Amino acid sequence: MTREAPATAPTRRPLRTALGIIAAFVLFVATMAAWIGGLIAFDALGIPIQGGEWLGWLSAGLIAVAVWPLAGRRAHREFWAHQHHGATPPKVSVTRPDRVLRILVMVIGAAGLVALCGPRNITLALAEVWQIIAPGGRSSNALLQLIGLLLCFVLMVPPMLFTQRSLRRTPRGHPDRLGLELRQNWYVSAATAWVCCLLLGLIVSFVLVNTL
Known about the structure:
This protein has 212 residues and is an all-alpha fold. The chain has 6 helices and no strands.
């Protein structure tokens, strides 16, 4: 009797796609429920707030709390697979200082996303500046890509310099080298995902300002 072959990565993709669609739908319903419930609560408390403004805060919080961690994990896998011929990142224990630093990065990054993408006045100010420096569609796309590249470069340089110095001192085959490579990959992935989420949050804010 022959044993059935284990499920491979291609056979798992439809399941992951279906789970992703279900999760997105549930997240959308929860966001709409929080939007409507929040407006009702603000009205009952006598707090003046527009529907578009509240939805902007919700969108910023959603991107900061849910989208950025998921995008960082995805980038971590993709970057590692690109550097190691399709391999998945191995599970290695993280030191306590590194774990605390990662938590600080996630908390500060999430707060930064909410602070930059949530307030309506910041969105309006950026929209006015954007119309001046990039009035056309092509110029807007080019400027958006340039800003994204510059932000990625600025955020990736410090962790790259710090971890690259340690990697140079650690010979290949050393037990600590794998942990250093994973640490470098994690911070670079987090920086890249944060920039993408920042641009996404600003675009969503611009759309809400123009439509609501």
